[in-house]
Amino acid sequence: MNSNDLVKNILKRDVDEQDKILKSTEVIKPCPVDVDLGNLLVWDPNVIDQQAYKENRDEYIKNTMRDNMQLLVNALWQMPIERHDNTVVAKLPDAKTIVPREKPVPKPKPLTKWQKFAQSKGIVKKKKSKFVWDETKKEWGRRYGYKKANDETKPWLIEVPTTADPSEDQFAKRLAAKKERVAKNEFQRLKNIAHSKKINMRNDGAIINKKSSAVDVKKALATAKYSDASMGQFSERAAVNEEQQTRGFNKKRKYESNLGSLKSETNKQLKIFEQMNSSTKK
Amino acid sequence: MVKLQRIQRPKTQRGKRALKEREPKLIENARSSLCIRGNKTNNIMKILLKDIHLLKSPYSKMYQKKNPDIFPFENTSKLEWYCQKSDCSLLAYVTHSKKRPNNLVLARLHNHIVMDMFEFELNSQTFRSLDDFKCVKFAPGNKPCLIFHGELFDSEAEYKRLKCFFTDFFRGETNMKEIDLNGLEHVITFTLDIQTKLLTIRVFHIELKKSGHRIPRIELNEIGPHLDLTIRRTKLASDDFYKKTLKRPDAIKAKKVKNVSTNELGTKMGRIHMEKQDFNQLQTRKMKGLKRNLPTDDDQTQEKRKKIDQTNKE
């Protein structure tokens, strides 16, 4: 073999290897596939080769899918690539296929009555500090909430005003006033919600033009029976079921006293014993 | 007279946050699926349900108990309620009965209302689960690649919807800006034959092999599940409803840049609007002779004459 042939052979081998490398990642399809990199999605519109499909379905699927995946990788490797500490990251474009939303487009929160009024008058909310100085305690405390400063429900001594009835309980009055304020705020909140949902409503919170269902009537009756507070003396007492229908009026759980009667305790023990006996018979 | 009913508000900050997480968002997070089984299921369907759960995890919840009296094609209210409760918008429901053996129902919801629902029959002979393939699997939460093959996916409306449905069901994490190239782990493939209308779902593990140049060569290994499905019943959303769900919020739409366009060759073209030019303020070439307040000739010449006169007198 002369040197000329040797050089030719080596050159030929190099060219063959180059071809082989290119072929390993090259895929030719009759119809170009649609690649959506944003979703990592490939849509192959080519007709299924029925002969190959029927002969060996799994083999055919594996081969075509390998080609499609290769095309996806080829497209992905064209994207700009970045390196974040030891990981190679490719930038993805926006998704092409539009998919339905899971939930509707968020709407802006409806304004409350006060917010609307403030807007029309140009009243801007002022930022208040979270902590204020408590004059009596001589320390800083929260403006609202737990351990708040200047808490008016805390003082244990209240001066009876000269105009007030001396027999009146000032503490009870203070408590009632607080409850009233909380209830008013809650009612206003409900009215704002009803207004935002366009429920036609009277000023006292009754819903206009809504036929009351049997449940509603029952609830109203139970509430009325409960709230006349005669406890069955002047009016009929609400049944247990009816009582339960009004929320918040449920009976509280009762515990037995620590010093219970001996008789009831023996009965209880006997009952358990009987149960155990019956299970063994089976 | 009907009074306003009490609407409770969250009592704790944690509860408040949890509720906020469920509110509609501008950019939505990944859809999560709910896996439920009916009253009667065979072992194969149970395994299938578990596989779907594993494919979708961590964006998936599974109810372990059986649920009697659920007939998705008659009444969806119970399923919708379950989905709302666990904040899921995808659904997989399996049953096995004499009338409909090996039954799988997949559905997606919009705003807690069932949108599209497909019922499939699983070919139990050819079914193989994730556990049947003893090989390297994928990390949970890894975003799968999806491949659709088969001309029916583009020609018929029902199958078109099916393609969109499966994209929605399996795509996992949405709005990804970048992807770790070593994180390409598994691909879910869907093949639909035009003659038998058989839907073949195969899941493969992706192997990136050295090819000698930059782009790696791909090899696929099957990892399961291995499903052959045929469609039984379908319930698709009406076009109006479907269109409504596709609506995208204005806030995330790309704003159109005015007066800038790109032509077919990809050259960026711009149009500029100018104010009317004022020619009086135009900067021209400066010449001494055209200066406005040049010292007048008279003053200079008079001075010069005076000088000459004086010298003459002397």
From TrEMBL, chain A:
GO terms for biological process: endonucleolytic cleavage in ITS1 to separate SSU-rRNA from 5.8S rRNA and LSU-rRNA from tricistronic rRNA transcript (SSU-rRNA, 5.8S rRNA, LSU-rRNA); ribosomal large subunit biogenesis. Keywords: Nucleus, Ribosome biogenesis. InterPro entries: Ribosom_reg. It holds the Pfam family RRS1. One of its GO terms (cellular component) is nucleolus. It is found in: Nucleus. Transmembrane segments: none annotated. It comes from the Eukaryota. Its main location: nucleus. Involved in ribosomal large subunit assembly. PANTHER family: RIBOSOME BIOGENESIS REGULATORY PROTEIN (PTHR17602), RIBOSOME BIOGENESIS REGULATORY PROTEIN HOMOLOG (PTHR17602:SF4). Belongs to the RRS1 family. This is Ribosome biogenesis regulatory protein.
UniProtKB/TrEMBL annotation, chain B:
Its main location: nucleus. One of its GO terms (molecular function) is rRNA binding. One of its GO terms (biological process) is maturation of LSU-rRNA from tricistronic rRNA transcript (SSU-rRNA, 5.8S rRNA, LSU-rRNA). Keywords: Nucleus. InterPro entries: Brix, Rpf2. One of its GO terms (cellular component) is nucleolus. Residues 301-314 have a biased composition (Basic and acidic residues). It comes from the Eukaryota. Residues 31-240 form the Brix domain. It is found in: Nucleus, Nucleolus. Belongs to the RPF2 family. This is Ribosome production factor 2 homolog. It comes from Rotaria socialis.
